[in-house]
Amino acid sequence: MNPNEPGNHDESLTHLLREWKDHPPLPPRFQEAVWQRIARAQAQVRPGVWHTLVAWVEAALNRPALAVSYIAVLLVSGLGAGYWQAQDKSVEAQSQWRTAYVQSVDPYQTPRN
Amino acid sequence: MKRHWFIALAGLGVALAAYTGVYFAGTAAQRSVEKSDQPALAWLQLEYQLSDAQYARLRQLHEAYRPECMEMCRRIDTKNAQIQELLARTNLVTPEIQQALAESAQLRTECQAAMLAHFYEVARTMPPEQGKRYLAWMQQETLMPGMMFPNPPPWASADRSP
User: Fold this and answer.
1) Distance between CA B144 and CA B112 in Å, rounded?
2) Do the Cβ atoms of B40 and A100 come closer than 8 Å?
3) pLDDT in the model for residue B148
4) Range of A17-31, A33-47, B6-20 with top mean pLDDT
5) pLDDT band at B152 (very low <50, low <70, confident <90, very high)
6) What's the ipTM?
7) Quick check: A86 and B23 CB within 8 A?
8) Of A21, A87, B2, B131, which has the fewest Cβ atoms less than 10 A away?
9) Does B7 touch chain A if contact means CB atoms closer than 8 Å?
């Protein structure tokens, strides 16, 4: 009897084949490559400045060093802008009060109605 | 929310919070002065580091000086009107015009003397160094360097701020 002939079932082989599953190792950076291919495919479908910008921001902010730099730059910018604006406002107000005081004591500079 | 969008928004929030905090801290003194009923005097207290007692005395002196100052304003306006009227009548320097100009100069001298007396009184309410600084500033602002001082004093060539 030929075991390769149809109908000649080897029960244990059949069972083994049913149980067998192959788990080949994924190539290196497989997941990243898939996402890159998806991104490229999407970019080909909808190329635009906005999407490019969003992709760039996403890529940049996913890098911890760039994310920390981004926060630091905005923090320093906020501090600088607040200080500069406050100084500007104070100088302007002080100038007004100086003038108001001088006008209140010097009859030659007092505003006439 | 995706992590990178959270970071982007957090950055903007940090910038806004930093700006607001520094701005409000930097203008706190200014807001305090603006709340005063006499901001110019309140600013004087801040600028010359006056205690509450010194500030109260300063206000008292200022209130006492104001009617005198207003009277000087009235006399100056009257004299100026008189000179304008005389000048409109002729194109010559008449004895009347000479007399009016002399009276105007005399009035200016009186006003400046009264102002100086007030400035000295105010300066005496201040800590000595601040009083000197105040006097230098007021003399510069009101007595017009070059007119009263043949050689401009050191403070006249410096920054005009007090």
Assistant:
1) 10
2) yes
3) 46
4) B6-20
5) very low
6) 0.81
7) yes
8) A21
9) yes
8 A C-beta contact, residue A86 and residue B20: no
CATH code for the part of the protein at B38-143: 1.20.120.1490
What pLDDT digit, counting tens, does each position of B38-63 carry? 999 999 999 999 999 999 999 999 99
Q: Domain spans of chain A?
A: 28-62, 64-113
Residue A1 confidence (pLDDT) above 50:
no
Q: What is the mean pLDDT of residues B112-118?
A: 94
Best of A62, A108, A112 to substitute, by most chain B Cβ atoms within 10 angstroms, is: A108
Name the phi and psi angles at A10, rounded to 5.
-95, 110
Which residues lie below 8 Å from residue A56, measured CB to CB, with a gap of 6+?
A: none
Residue-level pLDDT at B1: 57
Provide the pLDDT for residue B158: 45
Q: Does the CB of B21 have a partner CB in chain A at under 8 Å? A: yes
Minimal CA–CA distance to A75: which of B93, B86, B21, B19?
A: B19
Burial environment of residue B60 by CB neighbours within 10 A (0 to 12, 13 to 18, 19 or more): exposed
For residue A107, the chain B residues in CB contact (below 8 A) are 69-70, 72-73, 76, 111, 115
Q: Which residues of A1-33 are buried (b: 16+ CB within 10 A; e: fewer)?
A: eeeeeeeeeeeeeeeeeeeeeeeeeeeeeeeee
